[in-house]
Amino acid sequence: MQEFEPKIVAFVCNWCTYAGADLTGTSRIKYSANVKIIRFPCTGRIDFMILMKAFENGADGIIVSGCHPNDCHYSTGNFHARRRWIVFRNLLNFAGIETDRIQFSWVSAAEGFKWADVVNNTVKKIKEFGPNESYKQIAVSTLFNEEGATHE
Amino acid sequence: MSRIGVFVCHCGENISATVDCEKVARITGELKGVEFATDYKYMCSDPGQTLLKEAIKEHKLDGVVVAACSPRMHEPTFRKACAEAGLNPFLCEMSNIREHCSWVHPKDDLTTEKAQDLVRVMVEKVKKNKALNSIKVPVTKTALVIGGGIAGIQAALDIANCGHKVIMVEKLPSIGGHMSQLSETFPTLDCSQCILTPRMVEIAQHPNITLHTFSEVESVDGFIGNFTVNIRKKSKSIDEHDCTGCGLCTTKCPQKKIPNEFERGLGFRPAIYVPFPQAVPNKPVIDRENCTYYIKGKCKVCEIVCPTKAIRFDQEDEIVEVAVGAIVLATGFDVLKSDYFPEYGYGKYKDVIDGLQFERLASASGPTQGEIRRPSDGQIPKKIVFVACAGSRDPAKGIEYCSKICCMYTAKHAMLYKHKVHDGTPYVFYMDIRAGGKMYEEFVRRTIVEDGTHYVRGRVSTIYEKNGKLTVKGADTLMGGIPIEIEADMVVLATAGVANHGAEELAQTVHVSYDAYKFFAEAHPKLKPVETNTAGIFLAGACQAPKDIPESVAAASGAAVKVAALFSNDLLTRDPLVAVVNRQAPPVYSSCVGCFLCQSVCPYQAIEREEIKNRNGEIIKTLARVNEGLCQGCGTCVALCRTKAIDIHGYSSQQVYTEVMALLND
Amino acid sequence: MSDLIKKVTQLLSDKTIDVFIGYEKGSADRIRATFTRTPEQAGKLIFDASCTQNLAGFLLKHEVKKLGKLGILANVSALRSIMQLASEFQIKDGEVLALFPNADNSFTEFTDFHSIEAYLETTDVGIKSEEQEMITRLEAMTVLERWAFWNKEFEKCIKCYACRAACPMCYCHRCTTDVNQPQWIPVASHELGNLDYHLMRAMHLAGRCVNCGECANACPMDIPLNLLTYQLIKPIHDTFGATAGMKADAVYALSTYKPDDKENFII
Amino acid sequence: MEKELKILKYTDLPKLIERFRSQGYPVLAPIRKDKVVEIELVESLENVALDALLSTQSAKKAAFPKVEKVLDFTFGKADVKQTAVNPEECKETILFGVRPCDASGFKSLDAIFGETPKDELYLKKKEKTTIISFSCPIADEYCFCTSVGGGPGNTAGSDLQFTGISKEEILVEILTEKGAKLATMFTDLLIDAKSDIDKSKFLADVKVVFDVNSVVEKTTASFNNTALWLEQSLRCIGCGACAFVCPTCACFDFQDEQNTKKGVRLRLWDSCGFSLFTLHTSGHNPREVQSQRWRQRIMHKFAYMPEQLHVVGCEGCGRCSRACPVDMNIKEHLTEIGSQIVLIA
């Protein structure tokens, strides 16, 4: 059987990490193709619910990344995001969701190498975790396949 | 049903080398709502853009996805092209299949599949895009210059001479900055004061410039074109209008033994003082920490002798609110504190001084009237050692950068010393000589060849006092690292230039970012050297990194041009990617419940309270409203809002939600 | 005649308030909220150990507000609810008169926020020990065990939204659950819809929950919902130094920050 | 059909479930989950909560579950392919150990879903459900079945009804063809019962507290009695607990759950207690305040249904009162309505 290729979504801020990932490209540093980026203006914009949606739609792992503290293009967006994540991780963990499937990081526009590392390490980690079974069991998509009329 | 056009760019070989662009176009062309899909060698080229424009017209496209390089590179290009073809530019999105795909992955199916995914995501996003119109905001054509050193002075004069109002804020009682402390300047050795003071006077007299000395910026609100700044005018304890600057008070003040900051502690000043003879404004301030009256409650000699009764002991700080359209930061730099060099005995031995102190000794207006006499006993030092890189390029001191100006001023110091003490012997310990710049290398040569300065390549390990002499221990790395000991009469440390004290706080007050060394950060190291990441705020001089005078002046003029350009229009056009609070029909009005938890997350104070009233003027509901002039579109409020009453154009909940779904359901 | 009845009769007859929200005897051994509008009605007011319901939620109910100036029998949870609602601009100072039951069956009258704040400073606002034990027990489990635990609980959920309706902090007219552009939370009460709903709600109550336990009490399917929000109280207090419902002008823990907020998971 | 009376031994009860299962019938029965009693698929009699007064939720889920798929769809390039769920697919199922009020509760649902256009999905499931109810030996202060025409031994809606008549014996009433057909699976365990058995001796005593006809009359007449509805509902917090545990509440909502490629259409329970229940897109809400929603709940069961479907939409099971977080007690409120003096035009 072939190796498990995890689906990983990256939610990154436009000013630091997205630019950092651009630099990874300009520097031709190679990394795993499992990760696909969705651009946000700022980590402060990243709603915890979008992370839940990613898991529900079949993500095995998530990367959230933005500007280092004090570097936020909007000066404080990442500070607010950080608080939100601290709380959200607590909640997820208590609810029985593997918080380590979400990799939070600060990657600046200058850290092309770091971005590649973050991606590769996350892919490696998620491969060790295996598919996100807990969520796959309850994902909406299960309804799609479920048999029709039931009494319960 | 949407009519979306997909344009896959080969970027020559850059993309097509690893991604099967033709396949990407073919597959994504099958997506629901995609009307037209093609691939092309160079989408950004003229023919490429023409292809795009014609497709928009021919297929009546209502959305465009260009799969090419990073949107940070060409989004403006393609949005402009769409606009020219009559499609609202905000209905155009880019898939980054170069930086984020072809350049970072090998040539295989996975890479092409990823490219397809990235395009599919944008196709779905574009379906949710809304046509938007750019926002126009008025520009207040007054600039604020923070810092009255040579950089600030240059920027202020340039802006003012373009016919715009300038407000200058200087922390100290006089403008002039470090340059006013210098004796003579490399590489021409013309006297610093002589070239600087006319400019200082010009500032004071310029009809377009308002000067606030002994003042600091308290707060900055607003955004590009529309800043509101509060300036704290610290109490000078004198009435500037009544005071004629006769200076009688300063001579009569009984308190005379206060170390003079301007002289770097090499001289003394009274409690009521003018920092230096050519100060602008040339009017004294009372140093309340050291004034007998403020300490003991009695004295008031100055008040008694003042012919115009200008002394105001009860004067309080004053807060001035000003409206400005742009801000230039020119707060300069500082030099390392003495406690950095225990091994050099700086601060311990009177005759170990720093470069600025040497400038004062060499200055005709200095404590020694320009004679090089050592602080301890006023003797003329016959043997003098200059230590370059004192702190700079020294990870151990936490300063890895090169302070850049030291090589040159050390050479200048050695030269000045020789010119003044003909029988003296100057030594210079250095790591490398960095003399890039017009006439710089020649200048250093002269110091070495004509003035016979002994340059020793190597670091000084320790300096200690032995029978009245300063023993300088070092090694000559060019002589195979043989140990050297020099018994010097005086040592001058070319201490590293560091960020000004309080730079961090100021950065947070004006909302600009700063680097690891607390120097203010430019928007781009090469292409935007005088801009900051905060629109409307610019950098001039050494507050960004150590700079010499010509560099500071050049940067200042650069910043001034940016300001002038901004002021060249009455209206400023901004991207409409801002947050909005939804509105609905009565009786709901909006799903906003007016909890205003969003108010404190907004970095730009863009969230206002809106009261909805009935015909009788009674308040029915209070809800949040986003001031689209202030909003910079970070979206932090959006993520916080429990009722999802706030959304943001360009990154709306609908859009990001669909992106996630499209990405994961292939 | 009890002190309570005396006091309320007084407040109503001298028109200090128009309505008093208190407790009366309910079905079987239950108690229920009652809205006393005339001195005559005051007679049926009761207060005893069983009167634990947090009545503060009613302060925002449209039809109750319309009755006029409100008085309320407020236990610690209710007082904290009032503080939290005040910090979210839902109640103005002086709008509500609160009667707080002291241990000696006397009642303290709170007419302004300041006095409530002063009182709360001296009060233990922690969660009950049995609730803490339950949380500790869950925290001791492995992640997958916890997942199984909550799945079993959420399976029972029928999305009647009694938790939301009973929560004094769930006063939004349009809950995220009711947002359908996009449909963040599946409306259906299948496992996913339930999980999403409860996580979303817990997150929205993080730093706002005053641990009154109404959500769990209200749940007809007996799901221990309160634990979800309760277990966030400690980290929020320890990391950010914030406790909900203590000050009327408090800044919400999640809409402020410290540059040096501690975390150990961001690389 | 003529009802038959049989006797079954308690000790044989487990065999019934075994046989139903071995014949491939899914069996739904009340089971305990901590403090709540749920009706779920069971494999054997053990942990079937026969002693429970009532299940927390009603048995309506057997034919009207809280979430039910009605449609699958997939998006093509230009069209949407749909496949509706086929009602015929549902299995013959046995609803075991529920109470008479659960069984009779289906009267209302049958009436509502039987209206044209007929709701095949419900009707098929109902048709394929055989109900074995257990009469009530106990009742509590929330029960008022006798006031709405039911009772602890009411056989309406049941196919078989079991009544414990001693420690060892159960009286089995075979009430319908469906019931008889099912009974053939355990005829060998049944012996004939004496025809003069007085079942009522073994039933709980539930007092009649109001006259249903006058309640119906007065409810109908009270539409404009705003004060009454406001008074009763001041403490109502507008959740849906009452509706969701109710055996006769039939309101539902359709929701599509989809991604960018495909989706399902679901039928979900809804409640007139929710403020969004009647909210129009325009922002207008004909039932703007909670008292109007409370009025709707009562009027629907005691005015509109009797008038239009000739059934009272309430079985007196009292579940809504037990579930209500703020102790709205329907028995009390109906008594109040019934006892008011109003002019019947």
How is this structure best described in words?
The complex is a heterotetramer of chains A (152), B (666), C (267) and D (345). Helix content of chain A is 43%, strand content 15%. Chain A is an alpha/beta fold. The mean pLDDT of chain A is 91. Helix content of chain C is 38%, strand content 10%. Chain C has a five-stranded mixed β-sheet with strand order 2-1-3-4-5, with helices on both faces. In chain C, helix 3 (76-87) links the parallel strand 3 and strand 4 (96-101). The longest helix of chain C is centred in the C-terminal third of the chain and has 15 residues, at 191-205. Chain C starts with a helix and ends in a 27-residue tail after the last helix. Chain D has helices at residues 13-22, 100-114, 120-127, 177-183, 212-221, 226-233, 241-245, 290-309, 319-323, 330-339, and strands at 4-9, 27-33, 36-42, 67-75, 80-84, 93-98, 129-134, 160-164, 169-174, 190-192, 252-258, 262-269. In chain D, the strands form two sheets. Chain D has an eight-stranded mixed β-sheet. The mean pLDDT of chain D is 93. The chains are: A alpha/beta (152), B alpha/beta (666), C alpha/beta (267), D alpha+beta (345). Chains in contact: A-B, A-C, A-D, B-C, B-D, C-D.
Topology:
The complex is a heterotetramer of chains A (152), B (666), C (267) and D (345).
Chain A: E1 8-13, H1 17-26, E2 35-40, H2 48-56, E3 61-66, H3 77-94, E4 102-106, H4 112-129, H5 133-138, H6 141-145
Parallel strand pairs in A: 1-2, 1-3, 3-4
Helix pairs in contact in A: 1-4
Chain C: H1 3-13, E1 19-25, E2 31-36, H2 62-65, E3 70-73, H3 76-87, E4 96-101, E5 107-110, H4 113-121, H5 129-140, H6 143-156, H7 162-166, H8 191-205, H9 214-218, H10 226-240
Parallel strand pairs in C: 1-3, 3-4
Antiparallel strand pairs in C: 1-2, 4-5
Helix pairs in contact in C: 3-4, 6-8
Chain D: E1 4-9, H1 13-22, E2 27-33, E3 36-42, E4 67-75, E5 80-84, E6 93-98, H2 100-114, H3 120-127, E7 129-134, E8 160-164, E9 169-174, H4 177-183, E10 190-192, H5 212-221, H6 226-233, H7 241-245, E11 252-258, E12 262-269, H8 290-309, H9 319-323, H10 330-339
Parallel strand pairs in D: 2-6, 6-7, 7-8
Antiparallel strand pairs in D: 1-9, 1-10, 2-3, 4-5, 4-12, 8-9, 11-12
